[in-house]
Amino acid sequence: MYKIMTPGPTQVAENVRNARARECTNPDLDMAFYDYYKETCELISHLLHTDNETLILSGEGILGLEAACASLTEHGDRVLVLDNGEYGRGFQDFVKIYGGEPVLYTTDYEEEIDVADLEEYLKNDHAFKYATVVHCDTPSGRLNDISKICPLLKQYGILTVVDSVSAMFGEYVNVDDFKIDLLCGGSQKAVSAPPGLTFVTLSDDVKKAVRGRKTPVASFYCNLAVFEGYYEKQWFPYTMPISDIYGLREALENIKRDTGMLERHKRLAQKVRNTLRENGIALYGKSGFSNTVTAFMVPEGITDREILCTLKEKYRIMLAGSFGQFAGKLVRIGHMGENATEENVDEVLRAILEIVKKR
Ligand SMILES: *Cc1c(COP(=O)(O)O)cnc(C)c1O
């Protein structure tokens, strides 16, 4: 077994693993499961500081992003795609698949999105149905300030779709204060449940937009409207993965109990960044460093593969390289969720420094 220190999937606590082994009922026919599902959704909303409805979907993180675009996009809709990272840019594909017209707002990948610049841009052009925003762009570890970006977009009447899959619970998210219309999360990042589930939190404005469509959603699985009234009707659009949801619930209860979670993420991320810098290892980027993942530049005289393989074989630690334009250039430490303990972080830093010094 390796010590998993990747930016998702992350380590899974024993009580979460055990919860997944619990005896199952028939989730379609047992009315008690509708209550359990709804309570679990409400717990997510509660942890995200909103009364907006959350839905848990059967599929990993990407499903939430695609479902958001599928449910909102109609032919010819202009969609503002904020792009300062691989996931940011990637949203344009979903917009296109469902007939929308993505308009990229591309900024320096080394910097967080500058809110004043975005405001200038919006003054000239704000005819967008919705905008996509990535909270933490995981391949580069870039964090965007959604507490300022989303209210600004909303001010111009633009709905906000936020991918916080790799940030929420390691970074503060307040759906109501930030005015987030559609928030996407996943089970396998800071939540620290195994991969397999995504969840979306929907504002009344987003529900209204989906209801007000002129054309039907070109998907069943990605159509968020198929869940409407599921509780009253006691009918799920498809059979819910009950064991995955048992595990997710336990992971969420862990988060609820862990009142020092955000503070610990902040402190450990700071420690990772400081230690790497003090030892001559450059971080990727100039601003917007996430408290959930750190991407560092592969130092001269060694490759990402050498670092990752030595970590695995000699230290039994698994880290991640990166992809897209960062392939081969960056190595990433995921210090989120169950990974984010002092002990884990110290062990990883010690190993990285030994490897880099020996090169
Ligand atoms: C992990 C992640 C997702 C989900 O995608 P995976 O296929 O599980 O990697 C979506 N968005 C972001 C920003 C992520 O980090």
Q: How would you characterize the overall build of this protein?
A:
The protein is α/β, with parallel strands linked by helices. The protein is built from 13 helices and 13 strands. A seven-stranded mixed β-sheet has the order 2-10-9-8-5-3-4, sandwiched between helices. A two-stranded parallel sheet has the order 1-12. Strands 6-7 form a two-stranded antiparallel sheet. α2 packs parallel to α10 (242-257) and α5 (115-124) packs parallel to α6 (146-155). The longest helix is centred in the last third of the chain and has 18 residues, at 261-278. The chain starts with a strand and ends with a helix. Pyridoxal-5'-phosphate binds at residues 8, 60-62, 87, 134, 138, 163, 165-166, 186, 189, 195.
How are the SSEs ordered, and which strands pair?
Blueprint: E1 3-4, H1 14-19, H2 31-47, E2 53-58, H3 61-72, E3 78-83, H4 86-97, E4 101-106, H5 115-124, E5 130-134, E6 136-137, E7 142-143, H6 146-155, E8 159-163, H7 175-178, E9 182-186, E10 197-202, H8 204-211, H9 230-233, H10 242-257, H11 261-278, E11 293-297, H12 304-315, E12 317-318, E13 330-334, H13 342-358
Parallel strand pairs: 1-12, 3-4, 3-5, 5-8, 8-9
Antiparallel strand pairs: 2-10, 6-7, 9-10, 11-13
Bound molecules: pyridoxal-5'-phosphate.
Key attributes of the depicted protein:
single chain, 359 residues, alpha/beta, Aspartate Aminotransferase, domain 2, Aspartate Aminotransferase, domain 1, 2 domains, 7-stranded mixed beta sheet, two-stranded parallel ribbon, 13 helices, binds pyridoxal-5'-phosphate
